[in-house]
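Q: What would this chain look like folded?
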Amino acid sequence: MRVIDLLEFLKDIQKNEMIFANLEKEDYAIELVEKRDDKIFCQLTKNKKSLKNWELLLLLNKKDQLDLPVFVEKDKKNHQIFGMRLGEQKIVLY
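A: My prediction, written as structure tokens:
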């Protein structure tokens, strides 16, 4: 999924919803977003506190990043984001 696609999904969702990523049937909190090698990486942690929707929107909404693919990174392994679902008071990327 590209940044611009993810922004379109997230823009109409409540701003204070926390954002998680689902890997290996488990939800991980997104704690950091960075640009490397023409890709966007969301770093994951097992913490209960994650970035909120408005924080992720603010970090991603930059003109030079809109066409870049979004990945999540856990244990130095990268997984591309393909979609999202709404969970109990949270947004889950997968």
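Helices lie at 3-10, 53-60.
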